[in-house]
Design brief:
heterodimer; A: alpha+beta; six-stranded mixed beta sheet; globular; disordered N terminus; B: about 325 residues; mainly alpha; 13 helices; about 0% strand
C-alpha cells in the first residue's frame, strides 16, 4: 500500500514492543474510555518504552509548561494528492489531513480512543453502535451535530465520491440521528471490527452545510473540527494550517500553525533537518539515523511499523495453483536474509503470521525458520516440476528496498531450481499487471491495520480489495465470517490464529518481513507522540521550546 | 513580426505530430490514472465511477477527438488529479522555472564566457589546461551530487543557506534569492562546462581567420581584437548552445527541482506521468514543445544582432 512507501527501520526490540503493545492493544476500549489524548505524552503505548530502538515519545519531557505560539516547519515525503478527507488515500494525505479533520474515534498505536464521539456503546449482537458526540465546532463556525455525521458517512458510501472508505461501509445499513448529539449506526451483519473502521483517519466528519454548497472546494477551505484549519495550499510548494481558536479540546493546540513542505528525496530531507531549515521530517532514512542519534540538536521517533513486505503467488495458474509448489517456496525462503539485505538489517522477519509479532492475535510460534531446500525440492518433485521452473516476479522498481528484496528472493529460489525473471515496474503498471492475473509472483508492501479482520477480508476473502490472486478457500472464509461475529476476544484471537496457520501453510502469499519507520525533529520540538500508522493528529500536543 | 508568425505557422504540423504521439504514448504505458490513484485498493464500483468521471471509459478515438476539439478552442483540458485546468497548473509552476533557468544561465555565462576566452587566448598553457580540466569535471559530475555537496557545505555545516524550498520573488525577495542560490549554482555549473568548451572552440576558430589577422596587423590592442572583433562572431555558436540549454532547462531540471523542493515544470511533468494524469502530461509536453520552438526562434532572431553580415539577408 502506498501509505508509506519509504520504509525506514531499526531492528525491533521485539520483546519490549510485544510487552508494550500487548498491554495497550489487547484491551477493547470500553464505552467512553479515558481521554488519553488530553495531555502530551499520555498514551500508554508511549509511556513505557525502554527499548533503545523504538521511541514513541521523548524519553525525558521538556521541563516547564508547554509554550504557546510558534509555527512548526514540517517537511513531508511527498505532496498530498487531495485535501478531501473522503477521497484521500496516500501517505502525504494522512499527514496533512489528520490535523484538520477528525473521525468519531481515533486509532493511536493500536488503541481506540474517543475523538468526535465522547462515548459509544455496542449492542450485544454487535449490529448496533451508538455514539454520543462531543460539543465541537467546525472551522466554519457551525456546531457539530449528528446530521453532519450522517452526511459524512453517506458521502463516503456514495460511489460518486469514489471514497476508499466505501468498501468498508457496505455493511452499514442505516444511520439514525435521534437527537443532535446522538448517532446510531445499524449494520446488516455483526462486525466486531466496525469501531476500527469508524476510527480510520479517512472517515473524517465534515460540515454538512458547507459541503452541500456547490461552490465547495475541499482543496481551498476547511470543513473539519480539527486542531488546525486549512490556510492555503500552494501546489508544489506548501500546505499551511493555522490554529483553530475554538478547538473543543481546551488548551490545544499550542502551535499557531504548521507549514508543511514536500520533498521526496531522502538525502534532502535529512539535510533540511540537520541544517535547521525545517523542524520536523517524516520518513527519516535509517542510513541517517545514527547521525541523528549522536547530534545533540536533533531527535528521532519511531522504530516500528504497520507495514510489511510480502510476495503474492498467483494461485490461478501453474505452477503456483499447486499448493506443493507454493509450499516449496515457503520452505526455500530465508526471510531473515531478505530483511537483512533489503532493509539494512532492521525490521522483523515474518516466519509465521501475516501480523507483526506485537499485534494482537499474531502467531507467536514460528512456522518457518532456516530455509529447508531439501524439503522444498522434495515438494517440487511431488508436484512433478522437479525439472526446473521459470517464473516472473513483478515489483515496484522505483523503491530500492523492493528491488533488493526481489534480487535476494531470486537468488534464494535459484537454490531449488526456480528461475525468477525480475520485472521492475512502476506502481500503476504493477497494479494493472496483477489485476489482469498475468503474473506468477508479485511483491507488495501492505499496511496492517488495527483489527485483523480488515487484513483477512482484504487479502484472503473472495472479493477482497487486495486479494490479488483471487484466493478462495472455504475454510478461511468460514473462519473469517465466524470471527467477525465472535464477540469474545480470546475466541476471536484463536480463530484468527487458525486462519493465519492456514495462510502460512497453503495460502496465496509469502510473508517476508515487517518494516520500521522513523521521523526526525529538532530539539525545539516538544510533546510529539509517534504513531506507527503516521497519524499526525497529535500535532495538537506539539509545542516549540524557546531555543 | 512576420517571421515570427511564419515560423509558428510552420511549426503547427510538428506540434500536431507531437500532440498525437504524446496522446498515444502515454496511453501505451500500462495502468491509467485510476490505477495510479487507487494504488493497492480495489473497489470495482469506485473504479468504474472514477473512469466515467475522468472520461476514461470512452473509446480512445473519442478521447482523442475530445482533446483535439478542446485544443482547437485553446483549452489544454483539466488535470485528473487536481481537477484544475492544465494551463493553470503549468502557469503556476512557470515563475519558479523561469527564475531558476535565468539564474542558472547567468551563473553559467558569468563563469563560462570569461573562462572560455582565457582558455582560447592562452591555448595550451597551464591556465587553459586547468580551465578545461575543471570544465571536464563539471560535465562529468552528476548534478544531484554537486547539489548535495552544496547543501552539506552551506546548509548543514555552515548553516548560511536554507537547504531547500521556494518563496515567490514578490513575497520575499531576500529569502527567494537565498533559496535560489544553490539550485542555480548546481544547474549553472553543468551548463557552464558545455558553454565554456563551446566558447573556447568557437573563439579559436575565429582567431585563425584572416580578418583577425588583419585587425592585429593594423596594430589594434589584443583586447580590442578579441572583444570587439573576434568575440561577436564567436558568440554565434555559443548563443545557439545557450538557447538549446535554456529550452532544455525549462522542462528538464527534475533532479534539481526534487532535491531543492523547487516547484518547477519538470517535476510537474514527471509527477503527471507517474500519476497517469493524461491531460496534464499531454498539456505539459505540448507546452514544452512550444517553449522549445520559441527558444529556437529567439536564438535565430539573435543572429542578426550578433552578426552584422546576417542583418541584410
Amino acid at each position: 500500500m502506498n501509505l508509506l512507501r519509504s520504509r525506514v527501520a531499526v531492528r525491533i526490540q521485539r520483546l519490549a514492543l510485544v510487552g508494550v503493545l500487548l498491554v495497550t492493544g489487547c484491551t477493547t476500549q470500553p464505552s467512553g474510555g479515558p481521554n488519553a489524548a488530553s495531555s502530551p505524552g499520555a498514551s500508554s503505548a508511549a509511556s513505557a518504552t525502554p527499548a533503545a530502538n523504538i521511541r514513541f515519545r521523548d524519553p525525558s519531557p521538556a521541563p516547564g509548561q508547554p509554550r504557546v505560539g510558534g509555527t512548526l516547519r514540517f517537511l513531508v515525503r511527498g505532496e498530498p494528492a487531495t485535501l478531501d478527507p473522503h477521497k484521500a488515500n496516500q501517505f502525504p494525505d494522512t499527514v496533512a489531513l489528520t490535523s484538520v479533520y477528525e473521525s468519531l474515534l481515533e486509532n493511536f498505536n493500536d488503541e481506540l480512543r474517543p475523538a468526535l464521539a465522547a462515548s459509544w456503546s455496542t449492542s450485544t449482537d454487535s449490529k448496533t453502535y451508538t455514539f454520543k458526540l462531543q460539543d465541537a465546532t467546525f472551522h466554519t463556525g457551525h456546531r457539530l451535530s449528528s446530521a453532519d455525521v450522517k452526511f459524512s458517512y453517506e458521502r463516503m458510501q456514495d460511489p460518486k465520491t469514489a471514497s476508499p472508505m466505501r468498501q468498508y461501509l457496505t455493511g452499514l445499513k442505516s444511520i439514525l440521528t435521534p437527537d443532535p448529539a446522538t448517532v446510531v449506526m445499524e449494520l446488516s451483519t455483526p462486525n466486531a471490527a466496525f469501531l476500527t473502521i469508524v476510527a480510520n483517519w479517512r472517515a473524517g466528519i465534515v460540515d454538512s452545510a458547507a459541503a452541500n454548497d456547490p461552490s465547495t472546494s475541499f482543496d481551498k477551505a476547511s470543513y473539519g473540527t480539527g486542531p488546525f484549519a486549512i490556510k492555503e495550499w500552494v501546489r508544489g510548494t506548501r500546505f499551511s494550517v493555522v490554529k483553530n481558536a475554538t478547538y473543543w479540546r481546551s488548551g490545544r493546540p499550542y502551535l499557531d500553525g504548521v507549514v508543511f513542505t514536500f520533498n521526496n528525496d531522502d538525502n534532502a530531507r535529512a539535510a533540511a533537518l540537520r541544517s535547521g531549515t525545517v523542524d520536523f521530517i517524516t520518513n527519516l532514512d535509517p542510513v541517517f539515523l545514527k547521525g541523528v542519534k549522536i547530534d545533540p540538536s536533533l531527535k528521532w521517533y519511531g522504530g516500528s511499523s504497520v507495514q510489511f513486505s510480502n510476495v503474492v503467488l498467483n494461485v490461478q495458474r501453474a505452477p503456483f495453483n499447486d499448493v506443493r509448489v507454493r509450499q516449496a517456496v515457503f520452505y526455500a525462503v530465508d526471510r531473515d536474509e531478505i530483511m537483512q539485505l533489503a532493509n539494512d538489517g532492521v525490521g522483523e522477519p515474518m516466519n509465521a503470521s501475516f501480523l507483526p509479532l506485537a499485534k494482537w492475535s499474531a502467531l507467536q510460534k514460528p512456522i518457518y525458520g532456516r530455509p529447508d531446500p531439501a524439503k522444498a525440492k522434495d515438494l517440487l518433485r511431488q508436484a512433478g516440476v522437479s525439472g526446473g521452473l521459470s517464473v516472473s516476479l513483478y515489483f515496484n522498481g522505483s523503491a530500492s528496498f523492493h528491488v533488493r528484496a526481489a534480487q535476494v528472493l531470486q537468488q534464494q529460489l535459484k537454490a531449488i531450481g526456480i528461475t525468477v525473471e525480475l520485472m521492475p515496474v512502476d506502481p500503476a503498471v504493477l497494479r494493472t499487471q496483477v489485476g489482469k492475473l498475468d503474473f506468477d509472483l508479485a511483491q507488495f508492501g501492505t499496511a496492517g491495520t488495527l483489527d485483523p479482520d480488515e487484513l483477512v477480508t482484504q487479502l484472503y476473502l473472495p472479493g477482497g480489495s487486495q486479494n490479488w490472486s483471487k484466493f478462495d478457500d472455504a475454510e478461511v472464509t468460514a473462519l473469517a465470517t465466524k470471527a467477525r461475529a465472535e464477540l469474545n476476544r480470546s475466541d476471536r484471537e484463536k480463530l484468527y490464529q487458525q486462519i493465519q496457520t492456514i495462510i502460512a501453510t497453503r495460502g496465496p502469499q509469502l510473508m517476508t518481513y515487517n518494516w520500521a519507520d522513523f521521523e526526525g525533529a529538532t530539539k525545539r520540538v516538544q510533546g510529539f507522540l509517534w504513531d506507527q500508522a503516521f497519524n499526525h493528529a497529535t500535532l495538537r500536543d506539539v509545542w516549540l521550546s524557546e531555543a | 513580426m512576420l517571421i515570427v508568425a511564419r515560423r509558428f505557422a510552420a511549426a503547427v504540423p510538428s506540434l500536431l505530430g507531437i500532440a498525437l504521439v504524446t496522446f498515444f504514448l502515454v496511453r501505451l504505458i500500462p495502468g491509467d490514472a485510476v490505477d495510479a490513484l487507487l494504488d493497492a485498493q480495489t473497489d470495482p464500483v469506485v473504479e468504474a465511477v472514477l473512469r466515467r468521471q475522468l472520461g476514461l471509459d470512452q473509446p480512445i478515438h473519442e478521447q482523442l477527438v475530445t482533446w483535439f476539439v478542446s485544443l482547437a478552442r485553446g483549452d489544454l483540458g483539466i488535470s485528473f488529479r487536481s481537477g484544475h485546468p492544465v494551463a493553470g497548473e503549468i502557469l503556476a509552476r512557470l515563475p519558479a522555472t523561469l527564475e531558476l533557468t535565468i539564474a542558472a544561465l547567468i551563473v553559467s555565462l558569468a563563469v563560462a564566457v570569461p573562462a572560455g576566452v582565457i582558455s582560447a587566448t592562452r591555448r595550451n598553457t597551464p591556465v587553459d589546461l586547468a580551465a578545461r580540466g575543471v570544465a571536464m569535471i563539471g560535465l562529468s559530475v552528476p548534478n544531484f551530487w554537486l547539489g548535495i555537496l552544496l547543501i552539506l557545505t552551506f546548509s548543514v555545516q555552515l548553516k548560511v543557506l536554507p537547504s531547500g524550498g521556494y518563496v515567490p520573488l514578490v513575497d520575499d525577495p531576500g529569502q527567494n534569492i537565498r533559496l535560489l542560490l544553490m539550485p542555480a549554482i548546481t544547474l549553472g555549473a553543468a551548463l557552464a562546462a558545455v558553454t565554456m568548451r563551446m566558447t573556447r572552440a568557437a573563439l579559436l576558430d575565429v582567431l585563425n581567420l584572416e580578418y583577425v589577422r588583419t585587425a592585429r596587423s593594423k596594430g589594434l590592442a589584443e583586447r580590442t581584437v578579441i572583444y570587439q572583433h573576434a568575440m561577436l562572431n564567436a558568440l554565434i555558436p555559443v548563443a545557439t548552445i545557450v538557447g538549446i540549454q535554456a529550452a532544455r532547462v525549462l522542462g528538464g531540471t527534475v533532479v534539481i527541482e526534487e532535491l531543492f523542493s523547487w516547484p518547477g515544470v519538470g517535476s510537474l511533468v514527471v509527477q503527471s506521468i507517474i500519476q497517469r494524469d493524461y491531460a496534464l502530461v499531454q498539456g505539459s509536453v505540448l507546452f514544452l514543445a512550444v517553449i522549445f520552438l520559441a527558444m529556437n526562434l529567439v536564438v535565430d532572431l539573435m543572429y542578426p544582432v550578433l552578426d552584422p553580415r546576417l542583418r541584410k539577408s
